[in-house]
Amino acid sequence: MSPTAPTTPDRWSLDSWFSGFGQPDYTDFKAVLVRDVEALKQQAAALGNDIAAIVQVINALEALGDRLYHLSAYLGCLSADDANDEAVKADEAWIATLDAESTKLQASLRSALAALSDSAFDTLLSDASLKNAEHAVKRMRHEGQHQMSAEMEALAADLNVNGLHAWGRLYDTLTGKMEFPMTFPDGHTETVPMSRRRALISEPDRQLREAAFHAGQKPWHDHAVTLAAGLNGIAGTRLSLYSRRGLPHFLDTPLFDGAMSRQSLDAMLEAIHTHIELPRRALRKAAKLQGTTALHYFDLEAPQIAAPEEKPLSWDEACATVDKAFSSAYPKLGSYFRDMLAQRWIEAQPRAGKRPGAFCTGSQLKHEERVYMTFHSTVHDMVTLAHEVGHAWHSCVLRPARSFVANYPMTLAETASNFGEMILLDGLMSDPGMTLETKAYLLDQEMLRAHAYLINIPMRYEFEKAFYTERAAGEVSVSRLSELMSEAQRKLYGDTLLDDGTDPMFWAYKMHFFITGVSFYNFPYVFGYLLSQALFARFKAEGASFLPRYEAFLSMTGSATCEEVVKQTLGEDLTNPEFWATALKAIEPSLVAYEAV
Question: Which residues are CB-contacts of 27 (< 8 A; sequence separation ≥ 6)?
Fold first, then answer.
C-alpha cells in the first residue's frame, strides 16, 4: 500500500447505479427485467413479415439490452470488489440464464429479418426510428441468414448453459483449486496456489521463475486428459453449430464478431511474419541482458531491467502523473480523467478479497463508466490505470450515440486503451526529470508488450487455427495438443527460445483457449495493438490537429466494419500488408533505444 492515505479517491462508488445489492430498487429492477424479457421473447417469437412490428421489437431489444448490461455490469463490479460474496455469485449465475432467454428472442428477431425480401428490408431500414442503427440491423439480418430454425436456436441456447459453458465453468473450478508444492531458491518449501504461479514466473529472479515453472507443471500434466476433453468439447460444440448454421469455416464467426474480413486478418499476419525479426530482436536483447544464449518460456514475461530502487509510488502521485501526461497531450482526456476521479468512478484500493486483474465497464443506461484495478504502488500499475481510462474514454466519446452504435467489436476495443497507455509512456519518456534507470525500465516494459502482441499472441492464433483444423476430423489427443503448441512456438519464436525452452502445456493453462463466450480470443488484440501504433504515429506526426480525427474514429467503431472505419478516418486499406508493416515498424525507435541499454 501507499505509505500514506491518498487524498485522491481510490475507492469507487456504485450508488448511482443502485442504492445497494438486494435493496428494493435492485430487486424491483430484476423483477421488471424478467417480466420484460419474457414478454419481448413472446412478441419476437410471433413475428411475421410485419415491418412495423419488427421495428418495434428492434427498438425494444435495444432498450432491453441497456438494462441487461447495466445489471450485468453492476454484478461484475460487485463480484470483483468482493470475490467471496456468495450472494452476488448466485445472482451472476441467475443473470446467465436470463441472458440465455435474451438470446432466444434475438434468434427469433434475426429469423424474421432474414425472411424479409431485399426490398422489404430496405423499407424497414428507412424507418426514422432506426436512424444510425442500420449497421447493427444489417448484422442481425446476416446472422439470421446463418442460423438454424428458431426452435433449434432456442435448444442450442438452453444446451449451451449446461453444455458448452459448463466446460468453461469446469475449467474455472478445476484450475481455481489447483496448487503445487514448491521449493524456493532459499530452500524453504510451501504449497503455492496456481493463481500465484504467473506472478512468480514474472519475477526478476530467474531461479525463482524456473522453480515455479517446473513445479507448477505437474498439476497441468495430472489433469491433462480432463483439460483436453474440455478443449475438445468446446471446439467440437462450436464446429457442430457452425455446420448446422451453414458457416463453412471456423474463422467466419470470430471474424464476424470482430467486424473484419479474412483479407485484413491475412494481411496483418503476413506483415507480422515478414517482419518477425523486429520483435525477435527484443527477445535477443533480453537474453543478452540475462546472460543466456536464448530464452526459456519462463523468461518471457519477466523484466530484464529491474524497476529503479525508488520510494513506492503513491496513488496521488500516480494520478498526478497520468493527469499531467493526458492534459499536456490531450486536454479533453485529462479533463475526463479528473472527472472520473472526482465522481469516484475508479476502484484502485489494495485490500484483501478483491479479484486480481483490471477492467473497464460501464452502463449505457446511466451513461457512466467504471474502472477496476488494484494499485500496488508500481509504475506498471500506473500504466494499467492509463490503459483502462483509455477504454473508458472510448465509451465516453460514444455516449451521445444510441446503444446499437455504442457497442463496438473487440478488434476496435483495444485501440483507445493502448492509445491512452502510449500517451502516458511518451510523457514519461520525454520528461526531463525522469532518471535514465526509469527510462530503461520503461523501455524493457514496452518491449515486453511488443513481444506479447507480435509474437506470443500470434503464436496462440497459430495453435488455435491448427487445433480447430484437426478437431474438425475428430478429437485431438493430449500428446497432439502439446505437439501443436510446440510447433506454433517454434514457428513464431524461432531461435530466440532455447532448445529445451518451449512450453508444450501452454494450451492447458492459457485460460483464453477455454473462454466459451468467444472463440479465437487472440488476433483482435494484435489488431488493436498495431492499429493503436498507427494511430499514435499519426498523432505524433500531426499533433493536436489529429485528435478530432481520432475522436471521429472512436465514434464510428460501433457503426461500421473495421475496414470502413479506418478507410473513412485514416484513409488506409486494412487489406494491404504494407499498412500493417508500417504500424509494426513504429516500434523500431524504442527497440533501437532498448538495444543500446
Answer: none
CA dihedral 532, 536, 538, 539 (to 10 degrees): 140
Cα 292 to the chain's mean position, in Å?
A: 33
What is the reported pTM? 0.90
CA atoms in the 13 A half-sphere facing the CB of 324: 13
CA-CA distance, 513 to 35, in Å (whole number)? 35
Q: Which cell numbers in the block locate residue 134?
A: 442500420
**Orientation of helix 86-115 relative to helix 24-45, angle to 10°:** 20
Q: Would you state the pLDDT for residue 1?
A: 41
What are the distances in angstroms from CA 370 to CA 73, 92, 268, 375?
9, 18, 32, 15
- Which 3 state secondary structure label does DSSP give 369? strand
Q: Which three cell numbers stand for residue 195?
A: 493463481
Residue pair 53/47 in contact (Cβ under 8 Å)? The answer is yes
What is the reported pLDDT for 378? Answer: 83
Mean pLDDT of 261-270: 98
Q: What letters, b where the CB count within 10 A reaches 16 and e where it falls short, cover 18-50?
A: beebeeeebeebbeebeeebeebbebbbebeee
Which amino acid is it at 499?
D
- What are the b/e assignments for 466-486, b being 16+ CB within 10 Å? bbbeebeeeebebeebbebbb
Helices (H), 245-314: 252-257, 262-274, 277-290
| Spatial separation of the C-alpha atoms in residues 281 and 290, rounded to whole Å | 14
Q: Tens digits of per-residue pLDDT, 58-103?
A: 999 999 999 999 999 999 999 989 988 899 989 998 998 899 899 8
DSSP 19: S
pLDDT band at 150; cut points 50, 70, 90: confident
Neighbours of 214 (CB within 10 A): 12
Among 193-202, 263-272, 454-463, the range scoring the smallest mean pLDDT is: 193-202
Q: What is the CA radius of gyration of the chain?
A: 24
